[in-house]
Amino acid sequence: MGRLLRGALLPVLFLLFWEFAAKSGWLVYDSLSWPSAILVAGLGALRDGSLLLATWQTCQAALLGLLIGSAIGVLLGSILGLWSFMARMAGPTFDALRAIPSIALMPLFLLMMGWGLSMEASVVAYACTWPVLIATWAAVRGVEPRLLEVADVLEMQFGERLRKIVLPAAFARINVGLRIALGVALVVAVTVEIAVNPRGLGYSLVLAQQSLKADLMYAQLLWLALIGYLLNAILKTVDAPGGGARRGA
Amino acid sequence: MTLASTKADPASGASAPVAVSLRKVGVTYAMGRPVLEDISFDVREGEFLSIVGPSGCGKTTLLRMLAGLLRPTVGEALFDGQPIMAPSRERAIVFQDYTNALLPWRTVSGNVALALEKTMPVKAERDARVAQLVEKMGLSHAADRFPTQLSGGMQQRVQIARCLSQEPRIMLMDEPFGALDAMTRQTLQDELMALAAERRTTTVFITHDLEEAIYLGDRVIVLSANPGRIAQTIEVELPRPRHQLTTREDPRFLAHRHHLFGLLQGH
């Protein structure tokens, strides 16, 4: 309890100082709101449903993109990891594709799909594919060769081998890539919304900024931080089934 | 050289058909000296063949070739008269490094079940078979434990149980007891012999321990190193069932031991 209090001391003092300095007229900028106003704006946005709708839209695009990108990344990474000739053949192509910043694909995807969920999720999927692909590739190459020989002797086909041997053995290291991709997904989704897509938290941020509602902007930023934290916490809970994957790392 | 004999029939009898046949097999790894050269022998069905040799004589390479995990560079390796082209469920292999060969994220039962999931799709039926094998290998009390929670001997038992569940025609064993303590090793030797006798599974057993080779085998092939060649083949006419004390004190056992010891020292 003492540690909690000591840790909370600085932020609380800072908030009090901020509140006091802004209210007393000592610190007044358009870009700078104050804690109580931010809280009120945030609660207001929560109550009228706009914040939750925007959250749903952003998370929908981020998670859908993450899901698609991860699936592609795991599949391609496994193929590259299992067959070195595939890696030699496709490696340069992937390196070239990976060099394209995902954000730079926004105009193209916008042209192809128009505004909305599919375009945003596609950019997110593209961005998420790479960290997962690279983590999976390395993880699959690192799978104990004995286990692959066991799969050989049991005459396992590609799908069975992937499901029963390769992916569980590589799980811990693939998980690292998934966690990186999760962070990427949220950042890219919000970026796409800020830049071109009129939906979600990114667009709400732009609206708040354009109507000079600094308090609402701060509230949304804090909300985004909370979402990122929660998503990461959720992914951490699916860490290691049976405890084996931890040892497999 | 009184004990030396060439391609004689194993104790299982001259009538038993040939399971494995190697004909002038050689293995050379890329850009290297040959690992194995001019290896020819037959293994008859139901036979327990021990292969013994110094480290670096290509024992493991030979076994991996029989499993189909690698192909001979020259010569022919036949199983049931067909060239061995790829690994097969019919040829189970027990690896020396049991820790690496078990799935750490599966329990003992889960590891044994691995080999049955395709052939026994009905779960109840499979579970019953797994329980039976787990019990046979004395692992019932540990069925729900993970491999890392087990001793080395127990882990090797799990691997053997998994291989048995394949219902293989032949068991290939690569120094399976090499990393175990003496007591555990003797127990497992006797269990293995009992299993082999009961199921009449053809077994090729690799070891660097020549006493183990004699104690277990119907026949012992001695390899010499650099490159690996067959130095000699001896028949072991010790009666079965064998016993850790009396068999090892049998004058014939001691004679084999002296002979093999001299042979291995020569290299």
Please give a handful of descriptors for the protein shown.
heterodimer, A: 249 residues, mainly alpha, MetI-like fold, 11 helices, elongated, disordered C terminus, B: 267 residues, alpha/beta, Rossmann fold, 7-stranded mixed sheet, 4-stranded antiparallel sheet, 34% helix, disordered N terminus
Explain this structure to me?
The complex is a heterodimer of chains A (249) and B (267). With 249 residues, chain A is mainly α. Chain A has helices at 2-23, 35-47, 50-82, 84-98, 106-113, 117-141, 145-153, 158-195, 200-210, 214-237, 244-247. Chain A has one domain (31-247): Orthogonal Bundle (MetI-like fold). Chain A contains 11 helices and no strands. With 267 residues, chain B is α/β, with parallel strands linked by helices. Chain B has a 7-stranded mixed sheet with strand order 1-11-10-4-9-8-7, with helices on both faces. A 4-stranded antiparallel sheet of chain B has the order 3-2-5-6, with helices on one face. In chain B, helix 4 crosses helix 5 and helix 7 crosses helix 9 (251-265). Chain A binds chain B through residues 144, 146-147, 149-150, 152-156, 160, 164-165, 168-169, 171, 241-245, 247-248, and chain B through 67-69, 86-89, 91-93, 95, 97, 100-101, 103-107, 114-115, 117-118, 146, 148, 166.
Topology summary:
The complex is a heterodimer of chains A (249) and B (267).
Chain A: H1 2-23, H2 35-47, H3 50-82, H4 84-98, H5 106-113, H6 117-141, H7 145-153, H8 158-195, H9 200-210, H10 214-237, H11 244-247
Chain B: E1 4-5, E2 18-28, E3 34-44, E4 48-52, H1 59-67, E5 74-79, E6 82-83, E7 91-94, H2 98-101, H3 108-113, H4 123-136, H5 152-165, E8 170-174, H6 182-199, E9 202-207, H7 210-216, E10 219-224, E11 229-235, H8 246-249, H9 251-265
Parallel strand pairs in B: 4-9, 4-10, 7-8, 8-9
Antiparallel strand pairs in B: 1-11, 2-3, 2-5, 5-6, 10-11
Helix pairs in contact in B: 4-5, 7-9
